[in-house]
User: Fold these one by one.
Assistant:
Number 1:
Amino acid sequence: MTHLTSHLPFPSSSSSSSSASSSASTSTLPPPSSHLIISDTLPSPGDFALYHLTSAALSKEKRKVIWVDFRAEGRGSLESVLKKLGTPLPPTTNSQLFIAISPSSLPPSVATTSSAPATTSSSNTISPRLYTDSSSQPQPSLSLTETYDCISAKLEARSMVILDGLSELLWMGMSATDVARFVRAVFARTRSTKSTLVSTLHGDTLPLTSSASAGGVNNADGDADRELLERLLRIGQGTFWRICHLASGRSGDVMGEISSHPLSLPPPASLGSQSQDASATTPSSLPNSQNQILGQTKASYYPSVPRCNPLQYRIEPSTVRVFPKGTGRGFL
């Protein structure tokens, strides 16, 4: 199990607790009707964050997980890691708690294990088509309609939907606008069922330091990735975890850094009894400083870890250790 919760807690979604207990109550998972965006880099992949969230959803909170695998990693890869962490996936004969959706990038002329979008293969994985035939177009076109329909059909109240590997859609030729429109549609669907949405993508072209950000980054290959991230950030209604490698280069004791950037206040339902006061979330009643609104000093808000002072982590055989920058917790 990873050690993320103590450093990156989320506000509890319980609304039955008292005001005093609500302010101190935290959760491992993002609150319902929220959106968690996770970016990573090739030297520092953010898979461990997904393992952390999936394990917590299945074991602690018993929430349904719908995993949309755009990276084509396969259920077996996730299953082997979670088993090592002590949270094995539910058996394939019982698909009510964990749903694996693996969109197929094969052209329509190539047969797959499932002949229809809603049909599952022997591994209990749903394989909707990404390419569709159209009589008005000579070439197959990319479409996320079947994938959206599969998510909608399996979505239940308080589920957690994971869109894993949105950058792969860009590399296949889909525009950032179309991918962002798909994420907006899925997010609207999850909000209607008080579910949680988690989106992952690559952020290799983002600057690692503030000085690099001021100087600008000229990389045409990363324009689509940056545009998609910007569009997702504009959706708001959640928080952004940025996972990246060290600007100083590889280290034997520190494998990467994590910063957390709140995009909005949590939904009223996650603020406990505080949500009964409607004026508590009006702009006129909020402090002028965003750090006062979204800082770590208040458990009822999303955690804020600035990029100038990020958390650092080290991957071990059966866990991930997270510690404040410079402390090392015995590693440095």
Note: The first strand starts at residue 10 and ends at 11.
Number 2:
Amino acid sequence: MDLTLQNSSQLKRTYKIIGFYIIGLLCLGLFIYMDNSQELDDFLKKADRVRTDWGFGFYSIVGLIKMASLISGVAIPLILTIMLIRQKLKKNAL
């Protein structure tokens, strides 16, 4: 009974770790798409021509989303990897 409970909790933990890595990759993918998107660039230029305050607002929002996706896309896998390495070293030290 304990073995199945331990395996199910380990499996849930593994799925969570994989899920966080996937979220990190999606964030990096979003950043790359937004950074290289010609359609987004054209839209921002059109919005800036219509009204300057709209253009500034869109540039600000897009910049914040790009920075947030870049930081989270790098930080999530980095933190997970460090935590997994530390845990592995603790188990090996015992």
Note: The chain has a mean pLDDT of 88.
Number 3:
Amino acid sequence: MMSGTHFSKTIFKIFHDFRVFCEEQNKWPTFGAVVSVVTDFSFANIHAIFRACNKTNSMEYLDLTYKIASDEVDHPKDLVTKHLCCAHLMKNFSKGINDCFTDNEVREFYKDIMASVMNMDFFSDIEDCSQSLCVLLFSPVMNKIVREHLDMLLNSKNADPIDLDIYRFSRV
């Protein structure tokens, strides 16, 4: 443990001091490599990393990373990227799916889709699957548009067709 408190200000100080030390040694970005920090969903950690490492706030960082991912701008060589821990992300997603659906087949379907999204290489594929996933999760009834998104997700993971009645009626 590096600190006795879990406040953004305290965590910021630790990261800021590390950055200043590296800059004094002409080692920022750290050792000339693209730097990535992996954390859980702690706002204090996330906010402190953005402020200390990139001298930005959360919204500015998200805007920049979207532009980088969609090839609107180049990746700045001194940008410290922030990654959410996959285990934490899947745990939170799985808990939400388990809370919303009663049928295990439907639960596994959504978890498989999320795992597929996390393993995709191209931003356009991630964007398409994420959009379809949101359409399915937020649509209360099956219709033509929802069916198209469901088919796209099934095709993206080469899955067997899913029972539409289970999809429609298994919500908690």
Note: The beta strands are 36-39, 81-84.
Number 4:
Amino acid sequence: IGKKKNMAAKYPGGPPPPYQGAPPPYHYPMAGTTVIVQQAPPPPRTNHGILGSLTKDLNKFGRSVQKELDAAGNMIRSEYNQHNYGPVMENFVTGNQVQLVSKASGRCLQIVQSQSGQLVVDGTGNLGQQVFNALWTVINEGSNQSTPYSQYPRQK
């Protein structure tokens, strides 16, 4: 009786109707009953014969050709860059001193001392051999890569 009171308090108009989209309840077979489960047959294998084999071989060949073309393109690009940038890179021989000048401002990179006392790179340097804090010594790393370093302040 206590459950009916709670049910009536929850649903004053009576319980809600059963859910219409619910599947019908499953009835378990009685013991000893044989249940047969049928599975859908697997999809038929598509065998294209010689045409399928030829297509597969052509795809392999295409991937191989693409790989070789990419390698050749990279080699051509590398040779092009060495040819076009070679004259510039001749200046970047280990031990050479260079000044790095901005095309936009015409000023050089230089090493200066900040207000806190640290050495920092600044882009407002002047041109000339006497501007020793704007001279950079080159270390050529090979493969068109060079590292400039400053000897400022000069060691005595």
Note: The chain has a mean pLDDT of 78.
